[in-house]
Task: structure prediction
Amino acid sequence: MLLDDFDYHLPDELIAQAPAAQRSASRLLHLDGVTGALQDRRFADVLELLQPGDLLVLNDTRVIKARLTGRKATGGQIEVLIERVLDRHEALAQIRASHAPKAGAMLLLGEAIKAEVLGREDDLYRLRFGGGDGVHALLERHGSVPLPPYITHDPDAGDETRYQTVYAKTPGAVAAPTAGLHFDAALLDALRARGVGVAYLTLHVGAGTFQPVRTQNLAEHRMHGEWYSLPQETVDALRATRAAGGRVVAAGTTSLRALEAAAAEGDPVAGDAETALFILPGYRFRVVDRLITNFHLPKSTLLMLVSAFGGVDNIRAAYRHAIAQRYRFFSYGDAMLIERGS
Result:
């Protein structure tokens, strides 16, 4: 398939710049991937759309304050976006600067953090942070929320709360698992009371999720890698759900990607791993039956994933409908519930 197969025109005013007043007050477009039927709903309607015996799988990654500004020792201004914390003192990062820093260069970030450039690893820089505090502690004090590039305002205290799921637990993501932003504690409690199981995994979303696909022939695209952890209790819940005839509902493309990666050899396997799984139309899904997801950027790998799940023509029609009905798009926007097409 070609990159242009996944293009569409979105009016700028439909890019959500702020979340809905209440998490579960967003709109929900329900797509039947078999028939192509569409229904306009509210997100809170997942309480009736999910059935007793279903299993909702959530990604409990926590967004870190991954964006830092500062300067090089030579005085040039820079912006650093942490891509992945490697250990207590080292991280991989994207760096925006007028001139790319070389190995050995010293950076002063947030007016308080010194970091040394150790070298390049593909498009990323390996940095070593000085001082006794670890990278996570330094970012929490001096970093800012890494809002996506299409959100135009500077991050504020509201973003620190709303660009984070209510069940965020394990720090490490530099982008939110945005489908999860619609759930509040009351809705999750109501789903449990209805008999819907809730299970967790962790996938640390990387900044690569916003990187453009640079090749027209998608077979040539190299997918960014992301770390995930699938607990044994979630694997047990998946097995029990299947045995009882329930459906597996992934909250977000990140949950789906982790589940499908863990099942590459058959049944899902618990443990920690790295995945560079690139899901295109034609992919055979092993685990997930229903997907809750936001609306995704044109020509993005996430749009390709949902097209594989719901059907290319169905997703095109759904996006045309969403634009015509003035749905709000991207991270702070509205959501879809997609029934798998095949």
Observations:
- The first helix runs from residue 46 to 49.
- The helical segments are 46-49, 135-142, 157-162, 185-194, 232-243, 253-262, 301-310, 312-324.
- The mean pLDDT is 95.
- The radius of gyration is 20 Å.
